[in-house]
Amino acid sequence: MRTVKILCKIFLGLFAVLVLAVLVNFIPTIRLAGKNMSVFVGDRVKVYYETEKEAAREVFDLAEKRAHELAERLGVAEKRIIHIYIYDSQKKMQTKKYGYIAALLGLDWYIGDNIGDNVILTSPAGHGTQHDYESVKNAVLHEIVHAYNYIINRDMTYWLDNGVAGYLSGQNPGDIKAYGPVPTLEQTRVKGLLAPVKFTKFNGYAYSYNYIEYLDKTYSWDKIRQLIRTGDFKSAFGAGEEEIYQGWVEYINR
Ligand SMILES: [Zn+2]
């Protein structure tokens, strides 16, 4: 009886520590805007930044210049302002969606993200090892597309969401045959908490860009827009998801 009581206490103690650790982990996600952030205000975007003002100004200029066109291509009718939060350090940016744990995982390629219709970005001035100033700056367009996609259809698949974001922001991967094996149909359906990591591993950015390029060339942008709104391949293309996938694989191997 006494042993059971002691075991219960240990279990409850461990459970409490675990709950506390999870709560502490997510503290950075509570507020995107820090007290010391300044802001550039435009018609389409608001850009919040810490100390790297010049880099933030360049991100703001690019975002403000392109957001209108991106909104139009995606069919975001109402004039939605996208809030963009730029952090001087990549690690700090990484804590804003997944908490402290993300910054401990050594995800050097992880420089920006969207949280619903908000965008978080590492300052191009602190770009890290896997990116340079320009590629981080341009990533803001990719993330703005995610923010618009969230407004259009919250259930959009990770594959389509990133394909459209890469395609519209001009992140052309070049010769697609230079990448590893073509993702399987199953891989194009990637979802869940580990989706970003899995996606990067099978070259999802390059391949999903190519997939959207295939749809655009073979069908039309209007049909892609229809697909991302509804997720319904049949009504958009007159062909199911599997048939479209096979067509794409043939397009790569042509
Ligand atoms: Zn993305």
Could you characterize the architecture of this molecule?
With 254 residues, the chain is α/β, with parallel strands linked by helices. The chain folds into three domains: 1-27; 31-152, Zincin-like; 154-254, no CATH class. 55% of the residues lie in helices and 9% in strands. The protein has eleven helices and five strands, in the order H-E-E-H-E-H-H-E-E-H-H-H-H-H-H-H. A five-stranded mixed sheet has the order 1-2-3-5-4. A hairpin with a 2-residue loop joins strand 4 (112-115) and strand 5. Helix 2 runs parallel beside helix 5 (133-152), helix 5 packs across helix 6 and helix 8 (204-218) packs across helix 11 (241-253). It is globular. The mean pLDDT is 94. The structure holds zinc ion (ZN). Residues 142, 146, 162, 165 line the site of zinc ion (ZN).
Sheet having the most strands: 5 strands, mixed
Helix-strand sequence: HEEHEHHEEHHHHHHH
Bound heterogens, unique: zinc ion
CATH topology description of the largest domain = Zincin-like
Q: How confident is the prediction overall: mean pLDDT?
A: 94
Summarize the structure.
This protein is of the alpha/beta class and 254 residues long. It is built from 11 helices and 5 strands, in the order H-E-E-H-E-H-H-E-E-H-H-H-H-H-H-H. The chain has helices spanning 2-25, 53-74, 90-98, 100-103, 133-152, 158-168, 195-201, 204-218, 221-230, 233-237, 241-253; strands at residues 38-41, 45-49, 82-87, 112-115, 118-122.
